Hints:
By secondary structure, the chain is an alpha/beta fold. It contains 9 helices and 16 strands. It has helices spanning about 25-35, 65, 75-85, 95-105, 150-160, 200-220, 245-255, 310-320, 340-355, and strands at about 40, 110-115, 165-170, 225-230, 260-265, 290-295, 325-330, 365-370, 375-380, 385-390, 400, 410-415, 420, 420-425, 430, 445-450. Strands 5-4-3-2-1-7-6 form a 7-stranded parallel sheet. The protein has a 6-stranded antiparallel sheet with strand order 8-9-10-16-12-13, with helices on one face. Strands 11-15-14 form a 3-stranded antiparallel sheet, with no helix packed on it. Helix 6 packs parallel to helix 7 and helix 8 crosses helix 9 (about 340-355). The protein is globular, with a radius of gyration of 23 Å. The two termini are about 35 Å apart. Mean pLDDT is about 95; it is low at about 1-10.
Amino acid sequence: MADNILHGMHGCSREDTYVVPKDPLIRQRLEWFQDQKLALMMHFGIYSQMGICESWPLSEDDAPWSREDVVWEKDPAVFRKQYVDMNRSFNPVCIQPEEWADVAARNGFKYLIFTTKHHDGFCMFDSKYTSYKVTDPSCPFHTHKHANIAKDVFDAFRARDIAIAAYFSKPDWHCPWYWAEGMDRPVGATRNPTYDPKEHPEVWEKFVEFTHHQIMELMEDYGRIDILWLDGGQVGPQNGQDIRLSEVVARARKIQPWLITADRTIGGENENYITPEQSVPTGPIRVPWESCVTVGHAFSYRYDERYKTPRELVHLLIDVVCRGGNLALNIAPQPNGQLPGPAVRAVDGLGAWLRDNGEAIYGTRMADPNEVGKVAFTRKGETLYALVRQEEGDQLQKTLLIPYTGPAAKVTLLGLEAALPFERLEEGLEVRLPEILQGTSPIAPAFRIEK
């Protein structure tokens, strides 16, 4: 049933194994989550400096696909040391969290997913449990007014009524209790620990405690967190790497009882919504879900990146929303901390469309029909919305057929708020378009159909 959604780099959990949360507050919060529709995701870390894939080049097993952009060093051991030592040069002095938040707010993003720590273990927050962090004296950025990047970013976005999701990597390849020296496998051989946790339970327990401490730091010291977004699916009981996640989630919810957890690719009680990556389902999914997709081609910053057009972003959002999901659009900041201009211009185009047509996106649910050809449908209660994904150069004519055969008393074009004359045909509603639209190729005109 869920094979149609397993197209991402890591795929995602199956719809038919989804576990509905027992806590009524979490079920209520998932309704809130499904109203939001659009998130800004941001991968930012020491890897940003070199324009390479985040973290994954450190793993030899993952080298074939992740080191395509690593051209300065071929020796794996030397490369790993050079990567790890990038904390000593990380200095994004142009960072302006308020500017990031302004871009998100004006373009209709409702929540932020920010990398507090990726698999490489470098913390973008002031963790007390490691010196491998942005606030340590070993990092030149530690004297900057925004040195505790995650805190200041979270505060800036909250000030604009944007909710917060803390991305946190469960594997930590810098932690001496995950990639431990002198164990069964060399450091960096695979994405997994260098030992079998069953054979070295004392080492594994130190890693579990370390992970719990860091998660609780984020829960206790960084304000309201709406979502804990957990990556690194190899860390889970199914793989012999049980970090007793339910235990720390229970502790976190004593402080933040509204907390949604996305233990991605694991399933079970802590994966409150499922997460296709760099892919969109080909059809509806009837449990809470979110596709994380990049505005460019990569999650981390690339010097030669090509960004999607506003039309591509709008159509992507419509694809996701009409099939029941949320879209998390990833923008990777530049090494200096500024957002890439082409990425901002792309989401500005998306935002302009949403200002006219957001009524057909936010707070909606899947409709029946769901999609017919280039027309997608959403609904709010008894009100239906039809969104027409127009390709570049595909010009509108005097009339447009909306393939909907149900009851309709009034059809309104969003943006212009113009009530349109229409005729009911066997195959749907033939709507007469305003002259201002005839001969044009808008990104996606949206229509409100009232019964």
